[in-house]
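Repro:
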Amino acid sequence: MPKNNLKFHKIQKKIGIYFSFTITLVLLLTILIYFVFVSKNIRQTTRNHLLDIISISVINIDAEIHKTLTKPEQENNKAYLQIKKDLQLIRDAATDVHFIYTMRFNEQSGITFVVDAEENPEDIAHLGEKYTEASQFLKDNIRSLQKPIVEENFYTDRWGMWLTGYAPFYDSKGNIEGILGIDIEAKIVKSYERKVLFLAIFILVIIIPIVYFIGFRIGKKIARPIEILTKGALAIADGNLDLEIPQTTNDEIGLLAESFNKMSKQLRDFFENKEKIISERTKEIKAGEKNLSSLFNAMTDLVMELDYDGRYITIAPTSPNLMFKPSQEIIQKTLHEVFPKSEADMFLNFIQKCLDEGKTNIMQYSLIIKNKTVWFESRVTPKTKNTVLFIARDITKQKKQQKELINERDTLARFKKVTISRELNLIKLKTEINELLEKLGKKPKYLVAKTKDN
């Protein structure tokens, strides 16, 4: 088999594998997303189901009877058994409910169990037993619990892993007497999720062979125009600029063949008009440099490039009047050779922090330039692994306006305070005059509004 044909067979195989792998990956991602969505939906449906159960069940709890159960020795008395029987009826009538019980909370003893519907002695929670393994969700919500709620996630205690709902019930005076708790075992929810996962995997196993068969067929179809294109490109690379590659398709490969033909023509034209093209390109470069120079002249920000050691690499010719020292004096010098130590340390730490974190940082600072205080806002951005762009903007005017605004606000506050004090003193004087007139048996002269002081 010729060497070139062998290469094209490899291309066909690679395209088929890449296509099949991509589709398989898309299918895997789709199934994963589907599983996550369905799993989330199953859990939300289970939470809604549990919320419905506990909302209805809490109505059947007799709070007045429950209120009488306060001591461990009352376990298995008539009241206790009545509540337990009611809980068992609720448990047996509901779907997927494993444990159902009541609790009570106070600040002294915390959360304690009252009645547990469980019959297994190893699993039962006894009257007055502290619930030391309560979930953080219950601990966070028990003081403000006013309506039925369900845990956001599964939690684990010594009885297992559960999804639990809670609902307060009230005595005849409207006070919270206790909290009803209902547990659904986590493995029930997880079993639903596993069924969905097994179904998705089964579908994937069926689809993958089909995808690979289609992938190899498509690879063969795509490789043919690539073969034609490659042979033409190799001929052009060998110097055959008169060759025109046939366009066998109207897609991107056909567009690429057209581009090769244009490139071949441009190369022919270039070699025929080389000197003229070089002259035109030189003029374009000079025009670009002139435009760039005009752009720098119009900028008011200082633009500099510094390295990790604080050395000036380049300085753009913008706003020389804002430079601490002339550009020609500081280029290739370090910050500590230009600024006093305190300012140099500040700038160097800022530059090194920017490079270490790999992100843009902003700082504000002031410098004495030509015997005047000038405020700057600088934006430092990593350019390479070892250099940054340091762009500084003059914000002295904004700082001055900000200071004037603060002064005006303080003046207004002082004026308001003096005005209020004066009004209060006037009200107090009128009140005293009215009181004096009343003592003299005369009618008060002023109508004074009541304040906190009078």
